[in-house]
Design goal:
With 433 residues, this protein is an alpha+beta fold. The chain contains 14 helices and 20 strands. The strands form four sheets. Strands 3, 4, 5, 6, 12, 13, 14, 15 and 16 form a nine-stranded mixed β-sheet that branches. Helix 1 runs parallel beside helix 7 (319-339) and helix 12 packs antiparallel against helix 13. The longest helix has 21 residues, at 319-339. Residues 10-16, 33-36, 42-50, 128-130, 158-161, 164-165, 185, 187, 238, 240, 281, 283, 303-305, 309, 316-320, 322 line the site of flavin-adenine dinucleotide.
Amino acid sequence: MADDFDVIVVGAGMAGGPAAIRLAKGGANVLLVERGAEVGTKSLSGGILWGNDLARILPNWWREMPVERHLVRKRFGLLTADSALSFDLQESSWNQEPYVAHSVLRSRTDSWLAKKAEELGATVVPSVPVDRLNWEGTKVHGIIQGGEKMTAPVTIVADGANSRLSLGTPIRPEARLSPETTELGIKEVFRLDPSVIEDRFHVTGNEGHSEEWVGGLFPPGVMGGGFLYTNRDTLSLGIIVSIQSLYGRNAYAHELIERFKLHPAIANRLKGAELVEYGARLVPGGWAGRPAAFHGDGWMVAGDAAGFVFSNGIMIQGMNYAIRSGIEAAETALASKAAGDPSAAKLAEYDRRLEATGILADFRDFARLDRVKWNPRIYSVYPRFATELLRSMMAESGSPKRSARKLLRAAQKAAGVKITSLVRDGVEIAWDL
Ligand SMILES: Cc1cc2nc3c(=O)[nH]c(=O)nc-3n(C[C@H](O)[C@H](O)[C@H](O)COP(=O)(O)OP(=O)(O)OC[C@H]3O[C@@H](n4cnc5c(N)ncnc54)[C@H](O)[C@@H]3O)c2cc1C
């Protein structure tokens, strides 16, 4: 019996939407299914969309897609309970098309992408929470929802971080994600008049500002940070914390985001802003949290479901990798359709494409940073050490200034860090970077 579709894509996020567009453009009979009542209602990102991956399927996408602001400045910072130390990166080229990055609200972008796919001939069906993949032995032959099967020779699994379609299957034999490699992201959106945003963040027109803070503001041992991004008439604010580091510390997610919002460096920027949205989601753990394989007989896995997210306190990138991997999966599915061969051997082209486009190389490289990222001193001792050192260098007490060596010793004492830890961490950071 003939299959219902050439390709089924599960999840209309940043991986699934672009995959469906590429497939429809390539003449495939594609079904894009989404569990949300409308596409975009379940999506959540910080979200700064870096790069120009969408140009491969939608030239000049940034002029048509409902993006918020293009980034002209990025602030990186360290927070302690009562102080902040930051620096800004600003480049004039960031203010020129096609732009280096945009702030986005996923409810708008994802529904726009799904609409594009539909206009190009894809069948887009929201309100379909797929129960499971239709496994026939080791082969996937479409999906099952509410007891009904829909078949296709190839299925692209793009159902996001906590990929229920993969867990406990040959894609991810483990029953759940590991708390050691998974983070929790919480985000709030605040409405604020665009003219206030422009004044407060020193931007004009469609320009945008983003900031990421490594947090020494959380309870001891809790590792994570916060972000604040400007949209057209809203601000996106949130935190990302290691799940493992929350265990046994009496730390509750809602209290952590309150701490971030109430920090003096953040609170004054929220003045007069009204909370309009709230959401939380898991962030998968990159290379360490990757599935057992990225493809098999009749299936490929893309985006967050494949663990393609990198977050390290000073940046989080996942949407760019979702788009790129979604397009590569679509290209592979088109080649498999042309050859009439959906076998694992044919779909192995997906891995070669992930390699050629640099996705796998990036994630292998980022894995080297895990030792730095999961060093608890990065989140507690070093923000205190750095702020203490700078404060004492600048302070005027009326007595003679102290030598640099004495200031370093004093900052080290105030932060409670041993010289041996400083040296060891310095060597590790230099080595891992
Ligand atoms: C707080 C936070 C901040 C972030 N900030 C940034 C940022 O600034 N920049 C950046 O690049 N990345 C950021 N990320 C990461 C980024 O959001 C993800 O990498 C990206 O959304 C991955 O896209 P995706 O399509 O793979 O998954 P998703 O966007 O999660 O999409 C998956 C889709 O599948 C649907 N789905 C799930 N299960 C089923 C099912 N059974 N049946 C049908 N549909 C299903 C979901 O409803 C959803 O629409 C952030 C993440 C978080 C949590």
